[in-house]
Design a protein that fits this description.
The protein is an alpha+beta fold and 307 residues long. 15% of the residues lie in helices and 35% in strands. The strands form four sheets. Strands 2, 3, 4, 5, 6, 7, 8 and 16 form an eight-stranded antiparallel β-sheet that branches. A four-stranded antiparallel β-sheet has the order 9-14-11-12, with no helix packed on it.
């Protein structure tokens, strides 16, 4: 690897000096005539061989499903869809760094009261909680709080908004662990789709959460992975609408998953139980909730299924 990156150092595609210094030391990086230093540029034949071998060794994999695109116009779903109550799940227990939740504010103007606890890990950057109205033309927050400290104590955070409807709560804690107790009765979901930013940091720790399978869905498909190479293996089960375990993530290393939806199990809640690692949903709305009453779903799904 070091020999390869040294030969390609003039392309500026990798930080070869930094890699050498980190792997075998700055002394080696500065040593003239080091045995791993080869000044020959790569030839066209070598590049062609690398390309051909890479194509041969990395054949595309059949995902087993076609992704479905949903809008981000979310609305409360429990009432219109008459979703039954379910035993509450749990959010990932040590979310870190950058976290995003979506909430519904029923009346405006309003104050959103959160109870926030941050566990010290690095304590390198100021902690910030911000509230954004998703209907705004800009990404500016409608309110921000910086009262929370990484000391394990619970802080009362109050965020004000002049708007009704869908809002986004963003957490920035610089790598510390931040947990939130949400207001009773407020719909809250955790987005987890292919285009969700910061999703790996959000899924640190164990979790059990629900999602909705729209009517007519044939396959629950998506992507599963560790949050990082050093993190615990992915684990947990996917449970259908009757609570049956239909996929065991503890038996796989990760990657694409595809599970058929049995007759009568669409238009209902499914869940990932006792899970480690990320789950990106790609054939159903990519939003996780602790319970049915917390669920927010795309307006077009709620309108269609409520009929």
């Amino acid at each position: 690897m070091l020999k390869h990156t040294y030969r390609m150092r003039t392309t500026m595609m990798v930080h070869s000096y930094g890699l050498w210094a980190r792997m075998i030391g700055q002394g080696a990086a500065h040593t003239e005539g080091h045995p791993l230093k080869d000044d020959r540029p790569f030839t066209e034949d070598e590049i062609r061989t690398m390309l051909e071998e890479g194509i041969a060794g990395n054949a595309p994999v059949d995902r087993g499903f076609e992704p479905v695109v949903f809008t981000s116009d979310l609305v409360p779903a429990a009432g219109p869809l008459k979703l039954p109550s379910a035993r509450p799940g749990v959010y990932p227990n040590v979310p870190q760094d950058r976290q995003t939740y979506l909430i519904w504010v029923e009346r405006a103007p309003a104050e959103v009261h959160l109870k926030v606890t941050t566990q010290r890990v690095w304590a390198l950057r100021p902690h910030r909680v911000s509230l954004h109205w998703t209907g705004a033309a800009s990404s500016e927050a409608v309110d921000t709080s910086d009262v929370v400290r990484p000391d394990g104590k619970q802080y009362d955070v109050v965020l004000k908004t002049p708007q009704r409807g869908l809002h986004r709560v963003e957490i920035r804690d610089g790598g510390d662990y931040t947990r939130i107790v949400w207001p009773e009765g407020m719909p809250v979901v955790l987005p987890s789709g292919a285009d969700t930013p910061g999703v790996t940091n959000h899924f640190r720790g164990g979790w059990t959460l629900y999602f909705y399978v729209p009517k007519g869905t044939k396959v629950v498909g998506g992507w599963a992975s560790r949050i990082a190479n050093w993190a615990p293996r992915i684990s947990g089960t996917l449970r259908d609408a009757e609570g049956n375990a239909v996929y065991d993530f503890g038996k796989v290393e990760g990657g694409w998953f595809s599970v058929p939806v049995p007759k009568g199990h669409d238009g209902r809640l499914w869940k990932f139980q006792d899970s480690q690692g990320t789950r990106l949903l790609m054939t159903v709305p990519p939003y996780f909730a602790r319970s049915s009453r917390d669920l927010l779903l795309p307006a077009e799904v709620v309108e269609a299924d409520a009929r």
